[in-house]
């Protein structure tokens, strides 16, 4: 039997046989851009034919893209859902077409978990909790007014990182969240909202710490803090989530204090799960959890910055 015939007979799909459609949210943050870049790299490594649709932050564009991938008959669909609700009908269409859907980095709310094969995400509640616990430890018994920059309204990481942080500071009545508003995960909105917080809180003098649901908003806020004549990282503690290179630069400059890492490589485990499912028909675990690691100024942020920059995404 020739090799080609043997492979056809075994019916095992090599990764190179796979065509995957990826409905990406957009490019709101450095982390998101890194995730897109890593997805391309991981697809290329495996010879997967990858089609990416950029939804420019709109759920309706994601739904259209998913319908387009169904019409093309792709082997699998990856979705990074911009918000948590409103996915059931389009995912039912994918299910009817027997196309497995994998959620990347964000989860959805549905009464029917059979609508997706697996979700590759971190524990976003845990991330918020780690940030809160770090702050509790750092502040000690001192009173501390916290301002919070939330991610995109209705998105799973914004909902969960808020919840987790509140759990992390629970029982420590000296720590209080005095203001909380969305900065939509973007640098520009993070700066704008922080300017408002500073204005409302005695030129920023009544704020002890900033908790941002991602590093990009923290970086924008750091700029606002500096423009208000205060020292971020010293006058105001700064803790956020993602661990993108720019926050390590800010940590090395003493302008940010801590970040919780979110790997941008959600696609590698997702491609492997899809291929294993195609080969064996056996469903992967419903949740493929990625790691979350806390970095502080004690972790040689300049070295981490250079290492992360060296990865090229
Ligand atoms: O879903 C992951 C979050 O989305 C990242 O923390 C944030 O930077 C992004 O835009």
TrEMBL record:
GO CC annotation, single: cell envelope
Annotated Pfam families: Peripla_BP_4
UniProt cross-references to SUPFAM superfamilies, sorted A to Z: Periplasmic binding protein-like I (SSF53822)
Annotated ranges, domain Periplasmic binding protein: 22-266
Magnesium is among the record's keywords: no
Gene Ontology molecular function terms on file: carbohydrate binding
Protein's cellular compartments: Cell envelope
Predominant location category: other
Entry keyword annotation includes Signal: yes
Signal peptide annotation: 1-15
This protein's UniProt keywords: Signal
Top-level lineage group: Bacteria
InterPro entries (alphabetical): Peripla_BP_I (IPR028082), SBP_2_dom (IPR025997), YtfQ_transport (IPR054837)
Family the entry assigns: Belongs to the bacterial solute-binding protein 2 family.
NCBIfam families: YtfQ_transport
Protein name: Sugar ABC transporter substrate-binding protein
Organism in which the protein naturally occurs: Phyllobacterium phragmitis
